[in-house]
Amino acid sequence: MKSCARGFLVLAAVAAASVLFAGHFLVQSSAAVAQPPTTAEQALKAFAAMRPIDVHVHVFKSDPQFQALLESLNLKLLNILVVDDTLSYRKQLEPQIKDALDLVQSSRGHIALCTTFDPYKFNDANFDAGAIRQINHDFAQGAVAVKIWKNIGMEIKDRDGKFVMPDDPKFAPIYNDIARHGKTLMAHVAEPDVAWGPPDPSDPSWSYYQENPQWFLYNKPGFPSKQEILTARDHVLADHPKLRMVGVHLGSMEKDLDNIAAHFDRYPNFAVDTAARMEYLMIATPEKVRAFLIKYQDRVLYGTDLDLIASADVEESLKEWQSTYVRDWKFLATDETFDSEGRKVHGLKLPEAVLQKIFRNNALHWIPGL
Ligand SMILES: [Zn+2]
Prior knowledge:
By secondary structure, the protein is of the alpha/beta class. The protein has helices at residues 2-33, 40-49, 64-72, 93-106, 127-140, 151-154, 172-180, 206-211, 226-239, 248-251, 257-266, 278-283, 286-295, 314-333, 352-366; strands at residues 53-59, 76-80, 111-116, 145-148, 184-187, 244-247, 270-273, 300-301, 306-308, 337-340, 343-346. It has a 9-stranded parallel beta sheet. Strands 10-11 form a two-stranded antiparallel ribbon. Strand 10 (337-340) and strand 11 (343-346) form a beta hairpin. Helix 2 (40-49) crosses helix 14 (314-333) and helix 5 (127-140) runs parallel beside helix 7 (172-180). Bound molecules: zinc ion. Zinc ion is lined by residues 56, 58, 80, 275, 305.
């Protein structure tokens, strides 16, 4: 009886297993109809097929693994310099320029340079002449663009103790020089709304202000309002119609697509990049973002703000670079719903021609020389 019972158990187990197997098969075939989610590998392959250009990165070292990533993704980068007196490795401009030009050389065509000038010299007698001499020298070495940063408007003061704004007359000869050379101004002017407070842990940029409290202006009297700074930026657009300006970080209008659209309509010399602000597009209404990106498909450049600092753990950094490109591809190119940092993101599935503009062609148009 014992062996008979065992035989029955085996039979029952086989029967149960075949029911399970059949059930599993059914689930699999219905999933196949609904299409399996895009894998990271597939996303990177499709991204690479665009011959993408990331117009907003900060790379401080050359590395064979990093170079291999650029080559495998057919990826070109615009490496942006900034003078920042709150970070030791960004305080001095000259060594940054030298390192960045070396990187352009060693990258075999994968990295281009966006130079800058030192705005902390603003109160020097020959500030603008010196800045122009230096950026022209960088243009001669191949720099394709010039960056201005948020320290103009939010940190640097003139001799009277007033905040220096982007439309200060002292900058006009510099802007004219950039336009005359056919180069592009990459303008990081102001910050996300949350920098002016109140504290908002749900905001995608919140963690930045916890790590960089010097830029969090809530309850700090005396700073210009965000609108004052952006208005000064708009004066530059109006006063220099031949100057191409890319307002980086969605032109600091990250929560207001209508306002970005109004700027595009008003200033034909203005475009934006998506650097470090894709999260705001991901939390906005998908239909609205999709319509915006289709209507203004010639005005939005793909950028990330990814970095590779000298002390970086390259392997860890490369994971972040890849996962960012995977996330952005899935968001812009697929109709999948996926999780990103605890948020549900709905893919926009933009038309192929629009993707080609955002990931590549707009960069070539707005930043000639790339
Ligand atoms: Zn940046």
